[in-house]
Structure formats: structure tokens, C-alpha cells
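ok so heres the complex, two chains, lmk if somethin looks off
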Amino acid sequence: AAGVIQSPRHLIKEKRETATLKCYPIPRHDTVYWYQQGPGQDPQFLISFYEKMQSDKGSIPDRFSAQQFSDYHSELNMSSLELGDSALYFCASSRDGLQETQYFGPGTRLLVL
Amino acid sequence: AQKITQTQPGMFVQEKEAVTLDCTYDTSDPSYGLFWYKQPSSGEMIFLIYQGSYDQQNATEGRYSLNFQKARKSANLVISASQLGDSAMYFCAMREDSPEYGNKLVFGAGTILRVKS
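and the predicted structre for the whole thing:
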């Protein structure tokens, strides 16, 4: 079965640079969620989109922005990167966004030097 | 207050034995979902099992079962016949269904499980 696709899988950036993470949800899933997992931490919700509209917002820094496109893929844009942004970034998708299981992608491991 | 509490930072289990990973939760929302995810050392987050707050029966998925005790607000994961490949971090998560909470998952701190041969 098709899974959530994330690219790139690994990314190394320097402080103050920008990064763009991409997420391609499972086919026919219309809801995308972004989570950030710091080293040794549990995942923390950042932001979600349902039918290309932002549906919920969590602890996402103002330096980050995201959107969902007409083909339902989503991008997380991160600017002015800081050392503390080093983390595993997960995208998850679900169908309808209501009481449906979220399936996670493999994650993008971001290292900020 | 923590919404999801996993009190066992780490657990050992002998191969082929059963193990229970504890999870308690806190919510005043009558409608919610409880999830368990497995995270191997490679990092991916694998969905294991789901229990809805209105489900009358405990969820089961192969070797995984969820011991749901609503009055005690606990949702323990039971893994039967442990295998070496079960060694991983296990996260309990909750989704509260009221619109004010969105559909985000809130995770516990996780339990590292090590299966011994």
C-alpha cells in the first residue's frame, strides 16, 4: 500500500539558512499534519491542513510557514534556521481529518550547524 | 497537566513472552481516540492500534491488543509473543475530538522496549 512520502530524508543546513520540506500524502487523503520531534523527545504538533486550508496550528515558530497545494501535497518552509531547529520532522496524513488514523511518513532529519 | 503519561521509560521482555506498556490519559472530552505508534531506531513512526472512546470492545491487531479501561483512563498496549523486531520506542497518543482541539495528536514521552533473546 502507498505510504506518505517525505523529501528530502536528510538535510544539513547552516544557521540562518532556509529549508523546505515536502510531504506527499497517501492517495485520497486530504488532511496533512506536520510534527517536530527533537532528540529524545516525543513528537510535537506544528500545523495541519484540510482541503488546502489551515485547520489547526500548534507550536510552530513564526519563522516557519506551510501550505497545502491543489494536489494535496504540503510544504513546510523554515527560515532563519537555528541550532534548536535540528529535529526529525514528520508529515502525517489522514482521510477527511475527522476521527481518522494519522499515518506518518518516514520523516525528514534536519541538522542545523 | 500531562495529557498522556507513560510511566515506564524502559522495559525489558524475554523473547516469546508478553509485555504490557502502560499509558494513562487525561481529558474531559467525551469523544477521543487513543493510538499506539512504534518508532524503531531507524526513526519512522509506525501505526499499531487505535481505540475510540465509545468502542465497547478492546481493540486488537494481530499480536497487539489495547487494554482500555475508560473509568481509570488507561489504554495499555499488550504485545503477545514478543519478537526481537519489537525492540523500539513505543508512543501512546490521544486525539480529542472537540473542534477546539483540532485533530492533532498529543503524545506521551514514550517507552523503550528491549526484547532479549
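quick notes: The CA atoms of residues 6 and 23 of chain A lie 5 Å apart. thats all i got rn
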